[in-house]
Amino acid sequence: MALLLATSLASLHLLAGATLAAVDVCGQINLGTSPATKVYYPVDLLGNYAADLSHWASSSSDLSACTVEPANAADVGTILTLIGSARVPFAVKGGGHTANPGFSSTPGVHISMTKFSDVVYDAPSQTVRIGAGLVWDDFKVYAALDPLGVNVVGGRVSGVGVAGFTLGGGYSWKTNQYGLTVDTITAYKLVKPSGAVVTVTQASDPELFFALKGGGNNFGIVTDFTLKTFPQTQVWGGLITYTADKLPAVANAVAAFAANVTDPKAAIIPAVNFLATQPGVSHIMFYDGPTAPSGIFDDFLAIPHFTKDVKTRSFLDLVQSAPSDATSGTRGAFHTVGLRSYSKTMIDAIINETIYWGAALTLAGAAFVSYDIEPFLPSIYTHGTLPKAFPFTAEPFIPLNLYYAWAPSLTDGFFHDALRASAAHLTQVALADGQTGVDTAPLYPNYALIGTPLSRIYGSNLATMQAVKAIVDPTNVMGLAGGWKI
Ligand SMILES: Cc1cc2nc3c(=O)[nH]c(=O)nc-3n(C[C@H](O)[C@H](O)[C@H](O)COP(=O)(O)OP(=O)(O)OC[C@H]3O[C@@H](n4cnc5c(N)ncnc54)[C@H](O)[C@@H]3O)c2cc1C
Ligand SMILES: *[C@@H]1O[C@H](CO)[C@@H](O)[C@H](O)[C@H]1NC(C)=O
Ligand SMILES: *[C@@H]1O[C@H](CO)[C@@H](O)[C@H](O)[C@H]1NC(C)=O
To answer: Which residue among 64, 166, 217 has the greatest number of ligand 1 atoms within 8 angstroms of its CB, and so is best to mutate?
Structure first.
């Protein structure tokens, strides 16, 4: 059966040798796993193959030899050992929100974790076990926790996967209070490249536990994450947008917020963007309580808005109200700078970058340019007492997120170069602003553009991570998948 399929697919698509080998592994997986584990091929009228491959950005999608939906951890082990023996390229996809090409896509065997969808709350330990196939705001995670009055330190806008987000670090609305998502993990259920299924905790394997906190897909496939939970009431906030003429007032308000607001329940993401011919601001405000104390958001509320959807609501409703799918389906890329502070100088330079590159790239056919300002408190790296792979220093560098989207007909390299140039320029502005070390600051793996040197992602932690990797994955099976390969 597998051979027949391989033959017919080969003649259909004139597959390359590597892909032919992958098709063979697809057949082996089909035979070697339990019936609940599914293998889908490109000729799939029910749409399972296409659903498994789908990504937030088309630039990180690929046509694979087959897609596999493992149903349990033991089958994930079988799949990894078959892939490791045949040494074919593969991918692991959670929520499919990376924009970097090949990070969760492949021409080989595409593993979609969609069947890992349990959410199990344990009241005595105040933790919740969450399956690696889930998205924070789909019908399960936030929605399941809301009636219990608890929540996790998870994604801020709609559609983001639990797995990739958590394996990279995790900047949340609740990060000012509790740290990164990785600071709140108590256990990973991990399928090692050998096929062994283990529960990794600080007590069971401190080195591997450290390495998984930011280390991405280098150590195997995670099927479940156990996270601490925290109390959750209704929250206040939502999206407010401003037109170009309000940019100076918004810049002042953002600088004042970044300099003066120390209440850890308050957070904002002012995104300066450029669409078609115009800059503008999409600004999300968050307060972890039904009402915000006066003073914190007054400056923003006093600026005449274009649209406004700000109110007391559930955490889930706030997350789903942000326009995170506005550019879904186009090609796109992110990049980042690690800043010491969002000074007025920095904010003005970011606005200048948005307008400069927005105008230049629109002429080249770009669809959208956005610079997301993320003024977290400098204390966010002090919450986790245990070591973690990301970031490699506890110095308070906080991320700026650059995002460009473009039409599929245009060349990726052109936009990647522009992102790198803009990030480099803003790094120089920060240095001139007295922000020492910004040129060597950790760059968040979930925001950094493909090609970023590993030294900027894992820095002084790299050698320890590589030592862990040599034990867990001596034949470098995970090197057959894309990502930040250590
Ligand atoms: C609209 C949008 C909003 C975002 N908002 C935030 C935010 O608020 N805070 C933040 O920190 N980040 C944010 N991000 C970045 C986000 O954290 C990354 O895109 C992250 O990779 C998403 O995880 P995913 O599961 O959806 O991605 P995927 O593309 O599925 O996976 C990303 C990486 O994780 C690996 N991986 C996935 N599942 C597993 C697994 N089970 N085992 C081992 N490896 C696995 C993949 O192989 C891949 O290398 C946002 C991104 C987008 C597009
Ligand atoms: C922060 O608050 C102080 C005191 O009210 C004020 O003088 C200062 O201008 C504020 N900072 C910014 C950047 O607005
Ligand atoms: C605006 O940005 C461009 C591109 O980085 C840069 O060349 C220029 O010097 C900037 N202008 C100001 C006033 O910062």
So the answer is: 217
Q: What is the pLDDT of residues 83-116, one digit of tens each?
A: 999 999 999 999 999 999 999 999 999 999 999 9
**pLDDT tens profile 249-291:** 999 999 999 999 999 999 999 999 998 889 999 999 999 999 9
3-class secondary structure, 388: coil
438 and 427 Cβ atoms separated by less than 8 Å: yes
SS3 218: coil
Nearest CA to ligand 2 atom 13: 256
- CA–CA gap between residue 24 and residue 291 (Å, rounded): 58
Place of tokens 């609305």: 173
- For 90, the 3-state DSSP assignment is strand
185-191 vs 221-228, strand pairing mode: antiparallel
**Is residue 55 classed as helix, strand or coil in its secondary structure?**
coil
Chain centre to alpha carbon of residue 388: 17
Domain boundaries, the chain: 2-112, 119-232+458-480, 235-456
d(CA 338, CA 409): 31
d(CA 39, CA 135): 22
344 and 111 in contact (C-beta within 8 Å)? no
In terms of CATH architecture, what is 2-112? 2-Layer Sandwich (3.30)
Gap between the Cα atoms of 225 and 192, Å rounded: 15
Task: Please name the residue that has the structure tokens 């060349």.
Answer: 411
Looking at residue 356, its amino acid is: Y
CATH class, range 119-232+458-480: alpha beta
Which residue puts its alpha carbon closest to atom 13 of ligand 3?
352
According to CATH, what is the number of the domain 235-456?
A: 3.40.462.20
Q: Is the pTM of this model over 0.90?
A: yes
Task: Determine phi and psi for 204, rounding to 5 degrees.
Answer: -75, -35
Q: Tell me the β-bridge partners of 239.
A: 284, 309
Beta bridge partners, 109, equal 66, 90
Q: Quick check: do 119-232+458-480 and 235-456 share a fold?
A: no
φ, ψ (nearest 5 deg) of residue 92:
-120, 125
Q: What confidence tens digit (pLDDT) does each residue in 170-190 have? A: 999 999 999 999 999 999 999
Quote the ligand 1 centre to 218 CA distance (angstroms).
Answer: 14
Measured between alpha carbons, how far is 377 from 397 in angstroms, rounded to an integer?
Answer: 10
